[in-house]
Hints:
The longest helix is centred in the C-terminal third of the chain and has 27 residues, at about 350-375. By secondary structure, this protein is mainly α. Strand 1 and strand 2 form a beta hairpin. A two-stranded antiparallel sheet has the order 1-2. Helices cover about 65% and strands about 5% of the residues.
Amino acid sequence: xxxxxxxxxxxxxxxxxxxxxxxxxxxxxxxxxxxxxxxxxxxxxxxxxxxxxxxxxxxxxxxxxxxxxxxxxxxxxxxxxxxxxxxxxxxxxxxxxxxxxxxxxxxxxxxxxxxxxxxxxxxxxxxxxxxxxxxxxxxxxxxxxxxxxxxxxxxxxxxxxxxxxxxxxxxxxxxxxxxxxxxxxxxxxxxxxxxxxxxxxxxxxxxxxxxxxxxxxxxxxxxxxxxxxxxxxxxxxxxxxxxxxxxxxxxxxxxxxxxxxxxxxxxxxxxxxxxxxxxxxxxxxxxxxxxxxxxxxxxxxxxxxxxxxxxxxxxxxxxxxxxxxxxxxxxxxxxxxxxxxxxxxxxxxxxxxxxxxxxxxxxxxxxxxxxxxxxxxxx
Length: 379
């Protein structure tokens, strides 16, 4: 007596893919690598001992070069979710693939179960238990935190990184929003995208040691301990530049504005607004504006408006004088040997004078750009 299932002419079966693959691993791979993994996993799930499948068949089925299939397995092997088992008498492309259990990997790698003999007993007791994993995955606040962290670091964080972050919540009694803020501070304000976990852990430990327990307390601490970085970030954002990694020479130049010239952040941001019409807003361009304001003894936003109004009035008077002349009709008709000398302004219309002024402004902008290149060490 035996029990059998009817086989169908068409493959109408199902292949169960673990959500860990879809959530954590699939986003980090290109479409070709995902297709190779899924098709190989489908063949592994069929459990048909009479079906012979190799990498050439997968390449043919997916209409891919064989090299792409081999590269895909190399990629997934580096991620630690498959094993390549070579055949002694096979070609270089002929090997078996073992798909590892992602659930088992997730538990073993992230939560250091009792198999790790190097962990002290008290540390083991603090670790999240396997039964808590389900609760964590179902918590919408945790999911939101991980999604926001993905955006900050500009990639999908790995399961190992997720496990490290979850341990902080338990060890330092931190809420998800505080964990997220620590990582944002690390990446956006300190520019520590590589190795952000270690730096973020240090930030969280400092908060914990300092008795900081709420987001309001974190914001207050920025005003006291990191006001300068807040200013740097504000200037770069105002110029449309990336504030996550500010060069040291630019920090030094901004320090001169705040410390040497004595400008407030409000004044500096006003200078940044004056770069809107510039083709490439730069720190050097802003520096030129601020140095001019310093020479004019401008100290407030109101002083800026008064100065600009004076410049505008002076410009209008020059244009009016150029178009109408300042002498009387009788004086213009009187000729002496002095008048035989040709005046430069006599040959220019108001539009031509404006063009000359425009070229002078462009020359000034060019000099500012050269100063900026020197600051960057390009010249």
